[in-house]
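Possible regression after last week's pipeline update?

I re-ran a chain I had predicted before the update to compare outputs. Posting the input and the new output here so someone can diff against the archived version. Not blocking, just want to make sure nothing changed silently.
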Amino acid sequence: MHLSLSTSLRPAARGIVLALFQDAAPVKHPWFTALPAGVKQTILAFSKAKEFTGKIGEVHVIPFGSPVRRVVLLGLGEPKDWNRRKAMLASRQVVVVAKQHKITDVALRLDDLKFTNVDTESLAQLVAENAQLADYSFVRYRKVPKGGWPKLTSFVIHVRPSDRAAAAKGVRVGTIIGTANNAARDLANTPGSDMTPTLLANAAVAEGKKAGFTVTVMKKDAIEREGMGGLLGVSQGSPHPPTFTIMEYAAPGHAKDKPLVFVGKGVTFDSGGLNVKPDTAMYEMHMDMSGAAAVIAAMRAIALLQLPLRVIGLIPAAENMSAGDAYRPGDQLRTLSGKTIEVMHTDAEGRVILADALTYAERYKPAVVIDVATLTGAAMVALGQRAAAILSPNEALSQQLHTLAEESGDLAWPLPLWEEYEEDIKGTFGDVANSSKVRYGGAITGAAFLWQFAKKFKRWAHLDIAPTMTTIEGQYLAKGSAGAGVRLLVAFARNYDAA
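New output (post-update):
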């Protein structure tokens, strides 16, 4: 889908969107007067009969002309309730409706979606970004239907002439972030048979070449030399060896900056190990590398945006399987830090491989470290499927991430991380237990485990994206991976102030 701008008062697209607030008079929409008389009469009849009232999400499609064009009436709801989140959904809905009605090109007025305290550039970014998200589908393994998949080739955003320059900046940024988010979805949606640790590392290498960041891949022998016992332990039941991928981006003049370090969990398939998952919980576990996908995609966006900073991405990748030589409950794994992990449960494997990655991050003397992982089902129990969990001992960092999550649409909510929780993950025979002594607060105790390997960082946060790993109904997004974490990481990098 190509996104472009227009300042014309007469849209030429095959699909013309009139986005209207509830009970608003259609005749007041700037595009109404340019419509054919018959279409205007139909719209007024709909409005008079209350068949279209402008309720949030309400849609009516009116065909006219030859070749057939269409007017899409899109309800925005009450003006007093209009906000950023609803504007995001409306931007997506335009794309979904266009595809449903086989509209190949569509036009929308940017001002129709304007909400309080948003500038033109930010609004254009929002529309472009969310249009890209809605345009995504994962059909790589499906037979192409007769006539092909529905395709929206062009999305034209109409702006005032005075707003064109600002809108162009926003569209560029939104397109880069939206397509990066979709790249993460591609990685996460790919089945485990086609996304082993080595193939995940290869994907990072390919993104680095395209976007302009360097990638180094450590294979099993190098991982052994480093002493990453956590990563090696989790991977030992799989025929596919582990990898440890290091991505580095530095803008000109920033190569010696203290970097931001993003760490992504890369479990390319999680059977649960010897503590095997129940069948209903295993189906989507090829997406247990969604944290890694988010970091790879964020690095892509950051490099393409040419942000003035230095960023390191670290991906520990392994497959957690249950062969005869798989790691066992009761095993003691010596990590890169020197600390031992007492294995209480082999399905608490993500934190084990992240432990080595967090220790590895120390050598960069980072300004901030953020790890991203589909770590716990407990986070989903706590928050449902609409927000990821933010956990950090640094309340200022936690609040900053919360604010940026709202602005980016990559929603996340803070949970507490206090010293008292550390008692719950102390080992009996090893230094740290990978599963809590208590059955409650699993999202917090999982973060408390990671904290034991992040003590040297002044600013560290953990994002548990298990709740938002997949899309849900009402989001106007294709089923499967949501690309959770990408937009939040990019927003953090864009707003980062080294001072």
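Follow-up from reviewer: compared with the archived run. DSSP finds 14 helices and 18 strands in the chain. Marking as no regression found.
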